[in-house]
Amino acid sequence: MRGHYEDLAAEYDEHWVYGPDYVPWMSARIAAALRLSSTDRIADVGCGTGLFAREVARSVRPRHHVLCVDPSEAMLRQIGAPPPDGLTQVLGSAEDIAEGRVRLPYERLDALWLKESVHHLADPGRTLRLLAGRLAPGGRMLVAMLPASIRYPLFEDALTRFEELQPDPEIVVRHLQDAGLDVELTHVEHELRVDRDTYFRMVRSRYMSLLSTFSDSELDKGIDEMREAHPEPVLVFPDRFAFILGVRRGEGR
To answer: What is the pLDDT of residues 124-143, one digit of tens each?
Structure first.
């Protein structure tokens, strides 16, 4: 999977922006769910190219740098060298941070989020429990993930495989509860409008990690299926996310 993101890094932002309002919308939802303030010590775990961390830093203006944590050097390079004001790059996976193999500049975090990366964890229960242990009293952890089924205009085999591989948000709720956090599950939704040919190119480039499980010929067949099912010039579909918020008991700093 790391190789998938290494290959995708240079085009990642192009594939994930969708439209000019998408990143600000998602970043605002993350900041609101975590109740971020300028005094918080914050980490984006699995940040990719820092799309959302950059926007959060711009809006929250934290006194401490937002930590952009990712195991892919190629993805982190897209953030820039030196990184934009308010961001610090940390090379490492969620497991590296949780297990202490990679040290963070802050002993404790007031807020962290994992957006669409929890399905990459080999042992999500253990990793989330250890990440919860990095929170200060009153600290917050947000897992933002797609639900167990999606309504994207993908080909049928991709939608089926997604449902086979995607963890149920309720399982993540239980993991955070087992970690001793107070947990709340909500959902956010945004209507996406994407040019048909642009979306087909995104699929061909395997913009979702799910698509890396298909061969070139399987993708070609799937895109032919999509062309037949979606003749409209602009694809309109909902992007719905489960937001699982865990809060460590105790007063904050």
So the answer is: 999 999 999 999 999 999 99
Superfamily of domain 2-192+239-248: Vaccinia Virus protein VP39 (3.40.50.150)
Query: Do 117 and 45 meet the contact criterion of CB atoms below 8 Å apart?
Result: yes
Closest CA to 200 of 228, 241, 238, 166: 228
Q: For position 10, what pLDDT does the model report?
A: 46
To 10 degrees, what angle do helices 156-165 and 216-229 make?
Answer: 120
How do residues 106-130 score in pLDDT, each as one tens digit?
Answer: 999 999 999 999 998 999 999 999 9
DSSP H helices in 67-195: 73-77, 94-99, 124-132, 156-165, 169-178
Bond prior to 83 in cis (omega within 30° of 0): no
Would you say 141 and 40 are in contact if contact means Cβ atoms under 8 Å apart? Answer: no
Positive or negative, the Cα torsion across 183, 102, 43, 137? positive
On whether the CB atoms of residues 142 and 173 are closer than 8 A, the answer is: no
Instruction: Kindly list the domain boundaries of the chain, sorted by start residue.
Output: 2-192+239-248
10 Å Cβ neighbour count for 79?
Answer: 21
What's the predicted TM-score (pTM) here? 0.89
In this structure, the number of other CB atoms found within 10 A of the CB of residue 101 comes to 10
- Which helix (H) or strand (E) segment holds residue 237: the answer is strand 234-248
Q: Of 101-105, 116-120, 173-177, 240-244, which gets the smallest average pLDDT?
A: 116-120
Sign of CA dihedral 174, 237, 222, 211: negative
